[in-house]
Design brief:
The chain folds into 2 domains: 3-96, no CATH class; 97-127. Helices cover 32% and strands 35% of the residues. It contains 3 helices and 8 strands, in the order E-E-H-E-H-E-E-E-E-E-H. It is globular, with a radius of gyration of 17 Å. The chain starts with a strand and ends with a helix.
């Protein structure tokens, strides 16, 4: 089992990758995608997204959502890569987002933050 610490989620405790992602996205986690085999997966990937993690490596975990033409429709998978000089695989964690990916991530984060702020204002307004 691979354990992760998600940034600002689950009280910064270690949680299994499957359980954590299913709780965050409300979608089934069906496994991993090898970055070397992206040419095969390209027809089944709906979009790529990133989740900020703090452990085992600080950065952005790369996820893909599969579309309804795959045998596991509407599920998420994590990208992995080959370790240097080993047969083992490791999670694809980016240290920093660049360009368009960074803009999209920031926009989503700000929208979510504003939504939470509005929700809190409504609670205090009713009192």
């Amino acid at each position: 089992m691979r354990l992760l610490i998600f940034k600002d989620k689950f009280s910064k405790k270690k949680i299994g990758i499957k359980r954590g992602l299913e709780m965050i996205y409300n979608l089934e986690f069906t496994g991993f995608v090898q970055i070397e085999r992206m040419w095969w997966w390209r027809n089944y990937i709906e979009y790529t997204t990133y989740v900020e993690i703090e452990w085992p490596q600080k950065g952005y975990l790369s996820l893909v959502r599969l579309n309804d033409t795959h045998k596991h429709p509407n599920t998420i998978r994590v990208l992995t890569r080959q370790q240097a000089n080993s047969d083992k695989r490791e999670l694809l964690v980016l240290n920093k987002l660049y360009g368009k990916e960074e803009e999209i991530y920031e926009r989503k984060r700000l929208l979510k933050q504003n939504w939470v702020d509005v929700k809190e204002q409504k609670k205090t307004f009713r009192v």
